[in-house]
Design a protein that fits this description.
heterodimer; A: outer membrane lipoprotein receptor (LolB), chain A; 14-stranded antiparallel sheet; globular; B: Porin; 18-stranded antiparallel beta barrel; 1 helix
Chain lengths: 265, 398
């Protein structure tokens, strides 16, 4: 055997092994990579402020509306969660009620609730991940920051979604107390944005479908402006209709401390 | 009347058509409240009608400048009671101007500040006077004039309060329920300090959290919010006496999964000496019980108070509070809090049920039931024994 043959064989073997490795790796990482690519289109947004309407609709079609504001402070480190502040403007009896969250990845978030009637700040348990957020079809875990590393991902395949093509990912919560066994998300291949999510309950049955529509681009940062959550088991629906986002409004760490909660109005 | 004039004057000063970027928010609510007592009154002079009606109006004027670093608030509170003149009240819950820097806030004017973590008694909460005529639960407060400075640091928030004017506690009049044999003469209060209501009170608070633990530490020096009582010279009424006190307080909460562990403790150098008081317990919540959206919470707190008979009377001296909180998490935010306190020394029981929900977008209804039992002559709740009541209130928001 001459050296050349040995080298060629070795190369072929290496290429074969390498490819095989890549194929195996695809099962483990392709889903994560797609999710990460989507998550990272958001990187560097800094901070944001937005007003939105929450429209709750029961099975009979009766509507009830809430107006709220959400301020978010980005924590670029993927091992740390973002900080957010949700303040209610209506209904009037809860005007000024605020929820401050310091999101964690796998540990329970730190959350404080501000009750304006007593001007009381109350640290609350965040283990209630699956409970409804203010009577809506959104659970707490749907509403607080969706962090990349809160889930494990599996790549399912690709399908057409409207005019776009979407990668379909299955994601399973890594944190405790989730109300879901799995979620299936559709991420488009053009702008890498999430277009739809299916939520499966603890029995494994389809519970809710979230559609994310009206994406707009703010200097490279995409935001959906209509989020429709439909509960397929109860036929209730909650729409979140966002106004225009403002970015880099000068929010800082001190705007996301519990002492701020009594100074919001 | 003076309050009303002040309100009109301050409202006139608020920008009528806000400049671009300025924010002015005006909102109002009117609450109609009816109380029904099913026992005859205990004391001579008390209105013997079973129904007591009242109306509460709260108007909120809020202003914030274009930069967002200055704000002002004006909240006149007006209450008219059909049976008891002393329960009618005009107050400014808030009337302040505040300036916010990156890591500090300066506030000048009247404001309401809450401290504490427990549910059955609020021991460390001392800045504001209690509107006891408004509600015997101690959660209705009067606006406190102050200059306050809050500093936010990485290691927590420090707030300092200078309070140049004292607010007297409100009490039911001779016609009203929830009063002792002799009514409290709120027109002739006595003070330990010769400065009387103009004594300058001081307070300092530190507040922070470390992981799952929230902590608050505070110091107060000034006029006690709780009065003692002495017999008036004519023997026909009780005069409230407001002593000078020094008090340190601690509030702690440990939040772990569905458990909130709570502790409040104070040590006070009061009228006759130094004593300590504490309340501690837990709130445990079962989320989405039986696969519904509803949460059910269980509350247990123990109250201790070491004060002697020369200090202001407390009913929370050696009591166990057991309660449950039901939140339906529906569109109307229906919630019920029901519980009772049991005095382990005397066997007195105080039952408290509060249920509330929204109707439509702008209406809010609340039902309360309160009942007292087990007290004998000489016990601290004996004077309330005939005052069991149910209260229905409807609030319309504008």
């Amino acid at each position: 055997m001459n050296c050349t043959r040995v080298m060629i064989l070795t190369l072929v073997a290496a290429v074969l092994l390498g490819t095989a490795g890549a194929v195996f790796a695809a099962d483990d990482t392709q889903g994560f990579d797609i999710a990460a690519r989507s998550d990272r289109t958001d990187l560097g947004f800094g901070d944001s402020d937005v007003e939105l309407q929450m429209v709750l609709r029961n099975a009979a079609g009766q509507e009830s509306t809430r107006a709220l504001r959400i301020a978010t402070l980005e924590k670029p480190d993927e091992t740390v969660g973002d900080k957010s502040l949700v303040v209610f403007d209506t209904p009037r009896d809860i005007e000024g009620t605020a929820l401050l969250s310091h999101a964690k990845i796998l540990d329970p978030d730190d959350q404080w609730l501000y009750l304006p009637a007593l001007k009381r700040v109350k640290r609350i348990s965040s283990s209630n991940k699956s409970g409804p957020f203010v009577g809506s079809e959104f659970a707490f875990e749907d509403f607080t920051a969706i962090e990349l590393n809160k889930f494990d991902y599996t790549y399912v395949g690709e399908v057409a979604c409207g005019d776009l093509t979407c990668d379909v990912l299955e994601r399973t919560p890594r944190y405790e107390n989730s109300g879901y066994t799995k979620q299936v998300s559709w991420v488009d291949q053009t702008d890498y944005q999430i277009r739809k999510v299916e939520f499966y309950d603890r029995r494994g049955d389809l519970l809710k479908v979230l559609e994310l529509k009206d994406y707009r681009n703010y200097k490279g940062i995409w935001r959906a402006h209509t989020l429709s959550m439909s509960n397929v088991q109860t036929n209730k629906q909650t729409d979140l209709i966002y106004g225009d986002y403002t970015f880099n409004t000068g929010l800082a760490e001190n705007d996301f401390v519990k002492g701020r909660l009594s100074r919001l109005r | 009347m003076r309050t009303l004039l002040l309100v009109i004057l301050l409202a006139a000063l608020l920008p009528q058509s806000p400049a671009r970027g300025e924010e002015v928010d005006i909102s109002a609510s009117v609450e109609m409240q009816a109380r029904a007592f099913w026992n005859d009154p205990q004391w001579v002079g008390q209105d013997d009608q079973a129904l007591q009606g009242s109306v509460v109006s709260i108007t909120e004027f809020r202003w914030r400048n274009e930069d967002g670093n200055q704000r002002a608030s004006l909240i006149p509170y007006l209450r008219w009671d059909a049976s008891d003149d002393e329960r009618s009240l005009s107050d400014l819950r808030e009337a302040y101007w505040a300036f916010e820097g990156d890591d500090y806030e300066l506030l000048v004017g009247a404001n309401t500040v809450f401290w504490g973590v427990t549910e059955s008694v609020h021991l460390v909460d001392i800045i504001n006077q209690t509107d006891f005529a408004g509600d015997i639960d101690g959660e209705d407060k009067l606006g406190q004039p102050m200059v306050s400075l809050a500093l936010q640091r990485d290691w927590g928030e420090i707030s300092a309060f200078v309070m140049p004017y004292f607010r007297e506690r409100t009490f039911a009049g001779v016609d009203g329920r929830f009063r002792p044999l002799l009514p409290v003469d709120t027109d002739n209060p006595l003070y330990e300090s010769s400065d009387m209501e103009k004594h300058v009170d001081l307070a300092l608070r530190y507040s922070h959290y470390i992981g799952d633990i929230d902590i608050g530490l505070n110091v107060f020096s000034g006029t006690s919010r709780e009065p003692r009582f002495v017999l008036a010279p004519d023997g026909a009424s009780l005069l409230p006496v407001y002593d000078q006190i020094d008090q340190v307080g601690l509030d702690l909460q440990y939040t772990e999964d569905s458990w909130l562990w709570k502790l409040e403790a104070i040590a006070r150098d009061g009228h006759s000496g130094t004593f300590a008081a504490a309340v501690g317990g837990f709130e445990y919540t079962m989320y989405q019980v039986s696969e519904s959206s509803a949460d059910v919470g269980l509350l247990l707190e123990y109250q201790y108070d070491g004060r002697d008979e020369f200090e202001p009377v407390t009913i929370n001296d050696n009591d166990v509070f057991i309660g449950t909180r039901l939140a339906l998490n529906d569109v109307q935010d229906t919630a019920v809090l029901a519980g009772f306190s049991y005095d382990t020394d005397t066997g007195e029981i105080f039952v408290n049920i509060e249920a509330e929900r929204r109707f439509g977008e702008d209406w809010f209804g609340e039902l309360r039931v309160r009942a007292f039992s087990g007290a004998e002559q000489g016990d601290t709740t004996y004077w309330l024994q005939q005052d069991d009541y149910v209260q229905l209130s409807i609030t319309r928001y504008f």
